[in-house]
Amino acid sequence: MQDSSGGVFVNNYKGVQPSVGDLVAVSGVSFPGGYAPCITRPHWEKLGTAPLPAAKPVPIDRLMSGAEDSQRIEISGVVRAAWANGNRLRIELVSGGFRLRAFSPIPPNIDPRSLMDAEVLLKGTVGTTYNAPLRHFMMVTLYVPRLEDFRIRQPAPTNLFDQPLSPLNDIAQYRQDSSPASLVHVKGVVTYQRKGEDLFLQDATGGLEVKSRLTESVAPGDVVEAVGFPAVENFLPVLEDAVFRQTGEPRVVVKPKAVTVAEVQNGLHQADLITLKGRLIDRTVRTIGGNTKEPYVQTTLTLQTTNFVFTAEKNTATPNTLLSSIPIGSLLQVSGICLLANDQGGKTTSLCVLLPASEDVRVLARPSWLTPQRLLASLATLFTVLLVAISWTVMLSQKNSVLKSLVCEKEIAQKELQQAHDQLEVRVTERTAQLKVEMTARKESELQFRAVLTERTRLAQELHDTLEQTMTGIALQLDMVASHFEKNPGNASHHLKLARNLMKQSQVYLRDSVRGLRSRAAEQFNLANALVTSSRQIAGNAGVCVEVETTGEGDSLSEIVEENLLRIGQEAMTNVVKHSDASLVKIDLQFSPQRVVLQIKDDGKGFAPDHCAGPDDGHFGLLGMTERAERMGGHVLITSAPGRGTCLRVEIPIPSPNGNESSQPVTADHEERV
Predict the structure, then answer these.
(1) Domains delineated in the chain
(2) Who contacts 83 (Cβ-Cβ below 8 Å, separation ≥6)?
(3) What whole-number distance in Å separates Cα of residue 634 and Cα of residue 313?
(4) Which of 161-165, 342-346, 495-499, 523-527 has the lowest mean pLDDT?
(5) What is the DSSP string of 355-382?
(6) Roughly how many angstroms between the first and final C-alpha of the chain, as a whole number?
(7) What is the pLDDT of residue 239?
(8) Cα dihedral sign, 156-161-163-165
(9) What is the pLDDT of residue 340?
(10) How large is the average pLDDT for residues 480-499?
(11) 25 strand-pairing partners
């Protein structure tokens, strides 16, 4: 997109694309981009339509620098090649000695090949090709959005092959009218073709490499005409962007020329069919191609003649067994296309012979059996055998001497072992008796420790469930006294009496606890009445109504079960008064031969059980209730949610009369787990 200040690339590859000429408002995130700044994650809104910005003419050197990325520009050039690429026309053109590509709509009733050598004027937006990891600029692409932005200034010749013929050796020589944009018409005999890439022609003056994207197949010996643009590659002449056709003349057999290394080093015989001798010093086989083109196997032979090293290549669809079977060190004669790379002085820096067929390699002499590699291998084997023999002899003599010393040592050790065995029997007897005494003492210590730990845990829960709950009730009554003292002294006096009664009750609890520590004699106790009395005392005048319902008979409950259920109920009522803001509490006590169930349900504000305060925050109520239930083999289930009240359900199993379950709720193992 572009406005009066310039253009920018908007990365909208996942969204719906606006049309060319739409006036849009875009919001997004600025991003450095792969080469130039851009906008990513855009949100755009169409505001209307508007004419495209005027395309500004730019110098070709500035355009090729990448500075005009995402800008609408105007450029003219000569078409080198054009073909349909999907629903767009791809154009390769040259302007001012630079090469660039462009994409535009396909003009109607125009054969893309007829645009070759036409001078065109293009208006479009500049895009860049870059190396993303390095953010390096590579080349320019011009995107032409409309047919009216593609204009032919000077059409191409009606028939490209009407140009006068030039000898193959003359395309790089001086001509007064020569220019990079002028077409050259040549004719020659095909010596080799790589379809879609190039073909090699030869006439009486020499050879020439003709680069062409055409995939029409021609065979060696066919006489063809080619029209293309002269260029220099590796300081050697080539014909680029060429088109060709067969002339229909009879085939001509071209025999390879026998050349010398000196001639090749002077830059002669480029693209000629030659014959050269060399000794094979290396061979590589690799697979080339993949995603965009058919893979092929390239077999490369590295040869040496006098002081010059060159290569011979053959591409096949499958591994080349003929070339792969030639032994290294063989003297070969290769016949193929001479492909050179020269320096500025015309000296050859490398030579590659393109083999038209695998049979163009002849083995003149195979390497002798005793090669330097085999001689070195034989010497290495002999040295290894001698080294192993000497090592074995030395090792055997050392083993014999060591064996003698070991025999003597074993005889001495046997005598010492017998003496040690006799002493060990005596010490084992003594140590066994000592361990028995220590194990007895350790068991007694463990039993004492478990008893102390059990009593400490019971005392901690007793203090929390009696004194702490009573103190909480006293604090609540004193808060009521403070709030009513000035407005209603009589009501305040009532709450002060309740606090005094709770203090007396705490004294009773404390005496009961002391009495329980001194004696565990059975007392007359009713769990339901105790729950009613303690619950209503805790609720007081806090505006909480307590309803108690009892089902079944609880005469079979043990003292410990009754005491723990009472403490759990007191703790639950304390939590209701302190935290729930409830107006009604229902206590349901159910007795059955198998279990006793205590359920306390309120209509308060509720809470989230997973996020409530715990021991780390100084609150031990829920933990104490859970521990009491688990020690008796039962469990506690708390159901609550914000705004829906709270329900606490405690289930304690009752042991069967036949004694299958233990009547003791607390054991040493249970106390260790707590």
Answers:
(1) 2-149 (2.40.50.140), 160-246 (2.40.50.200), 283-365 (2.40.50), 370-521 (no CATH), 523-673 (3.30.565.10)
(2) 89, 90, 112, 113, 213
(3) 87
(4) 523-527
(5) -SSGGGEEEEEPPPSS-HHHHHHHHHHH
(6) 73
(7) 92
(8) positive
(9) 92
(10) 78
(11) 45
Q: How far apart are CA 455 and CA 639, in angstroms?
A: 31
pLDDT at 515 > cutoff 70 = no
CA distance 34 to 370: 59
> Distance (Å, rounded) from C-alpha 228 to C-alpha 244?
9
Q: How far apart are CA 189 and CA 271, in angstroms?
A: 12
Buried b (16+ CB within 10 A) or exposed e, 125-160: bbbbebeeeeeebeebebebbeeebbeeeeebeeeb
CA-based radius of gyration for the chain = 52
pLDDT higher at 462 or 122: 122
* Nearest of 628, 612, 510 to residue 568 by alpha carbon: 628
Q: Is 53 exposed, middle or buried (0-12, 13-18, 19+ CB in 10 A)?
A: middle
- 337 burial via Cβ count (<10 Å: 0-12, 13-18, 19+): buried
Confidence (pLDDT) at 465: 65
Listed residue (12, 88, 72, 6) closest to 46, CA to CA: 12
| Residue among 584, 595, 598 at smallest CA distance from 638 | 598
- The structure tokens 């092929």 sit at 296
C-alpha to C-alpha distance for 25 and 451, rounded to whole angstroms: 82
The amino acid at 453: L
As a whole number of angstroms, the distance between CA 280 and CA 167 comes to 36
pLDDT attached to residue 178: 61
DSSP 82-100: EEEETTEEEEEEEETTEEE
Give the global pTM: 0.53
Q: What is the mean pLDDT of residues 295-302?
A: 92
- Residue 497 CA: distances (Å) to CA of 187, 478, 483, 500, 541: 128, 10, 15, 5, 12
What pairing do the DSSP bridges indicate for beta strands 308-316 and 348-354? parallel
User: 574 and 621 in contact (C-beta within 8 Å)?
Assistant: yes
Determine the Cα–Cα distance for residues 652 and 603; give it in Å rounded to an integer: 25
239: how many CB neighbours lie within 10 A of its CB?
Answer: 28
Q: Beta strand pairing status for 184-194 and 223-233?
A: antiparallel
Q: How does the average pLDDT of the chain come out, rounded?
A: 85
Q: Name the nearest CA neighbour of 574 among 525, 622, 642, 614.
A: 622
Contact 177, 136 (CB under 8 A): no
> Per-residue pLDDT tens for 202-247?
999 999 999 998 889 999 999 999 999 998 888 889 999 999 999 9
